[in-house]
Design a protein that fits this description.
Helices cover 51% and strands 6% of the residues. The chain is α/β, with parallel strands linked by helices. It has a 4-stranded parallel sheet with strand order 2-1-3-4, sandwiched between helices. The chain is globular, with a radius of gyration of 20 Å.
Length: 282
């Protein structure tokens, strides 16, 4: 069997796969955490989609390549990462849908979701909006100092873990919700020789032109432990157990729908609607 026949068989099999779930189209996502998040958003448009994880971004690439090649019988939904700052992203297509911010966590950790999570855990009706705004502004201001270095590392693969998998090494203490400015400055000074002034200036220009709210620019997983500690310290209930798994369960879906719908969800749902309209009319 030649390669074209193999590809055709594969594409035909993908078409049948959706029918197996009594759906019209498959949506492929990176991992297990992504399934619930994207399922909710796609259902706001139609129940005709089946969401399936592929266990990693690298396993999404064949599906994305297939879409770019013109096999428009499926959808891919994935984290934007730092591709917002890349001029030559080849995976731009109506059937490839990205998060508004860096990842799904940037949407999950919205002000309203944090506010309502604190209310539930504290069993109070207090409005925590002001303290959330103050904390977020402080956290993001310090986080943004690392952003140009993380973007450059993402683009040029310098092998330097800037944001890394979490923010713990930059916190003032294990249980603090605040970043230590000195720790961040020390890290930047230690690694400064690996980044040229031209690289930093070019990326800072792109960052400064990015109109998204600051929390959408930062790596989602970097926010997680800061959000966890902030909620714990705001609730001040020693019986509250909050870790990555409980945070996900509490915040993967909006506890209370914003009216009007928040900008990031509106952005994604609009793209899903466009993909659906094209699919239904093709």
């Amino acid at each position: 069997m030649n390669s074209n026949s193999t590809l055709q068989y594969s594409e035909d099999a993908l078409n049948v796969k959706a029918l197996f779930y009594n759906k019209k189209w498959m949506v492929y996502v990176e991992g297990q955490d992504d399934v619930l998040f994207w399922d909710k958003l796609f259902k706001e448009v139609s129940n005709s989609f089946e969401i399936q994880e592929v266990k990693g971004y690298e396993n999404l690439i064949p599906y994305m390549d297939s879409i770019i090649a013109g096999n428009n019988n499926k959808v891919v939904a994935c984290d934007k990462d730092h591709s917002h700052y890349i001029d030559s992203n080849k995976y731009i297509n109506d059937y490839i849908i990205y998060t508004y911010g860096y990842s799904i966590e940037n949407t999950m950790y919205c002000h309203s979701n944090i506010n309502n999570t604190i209310k539930k855990l504290a069993r109070k009706t207090n409005d925590y909006s002001d303290v959330i705004d103050t904390w977020y502004k402080n956290f993001c201001n310090n986080s943004l100092k690392l952003l140009p270095y993380d973007v450059i590392n993402y683009i040029n693969n310098k092998g330097i873990s800037c944001y890394g998998d979490n923010c713990c090494r930059f916190l003032k203490s294990e249980h603090s919700e605040l970043l230590d400015e000195n720790k961040i400055n020390d890290f930047i000074n230690k690694n400064s020789l690996s980044f040229t002034t031209q690289e930093i200036d070019e990326i800072n220009t792109k960052i400064n032109n990015d109109i998204r709210e600051d929390r959408f620019k930062i790596k989602g997983h970097f926010l997680t432990n800061g959000v966890i500690n902030f909620i714990k310290n705001t609730v001040t209930n020693k019986n509250v157990v909050l870790n990555n798994n409980t945070m996900y369960a509490l915040m993967v879906h909006c506890i209370e729908r914003c009216n009007p719908i928040c900008e990031d969800r509106k952005n994604v749902v609009t793209k899903i609607q466009k993909a659906y309209d094209i699919l239904i009319n093709s």
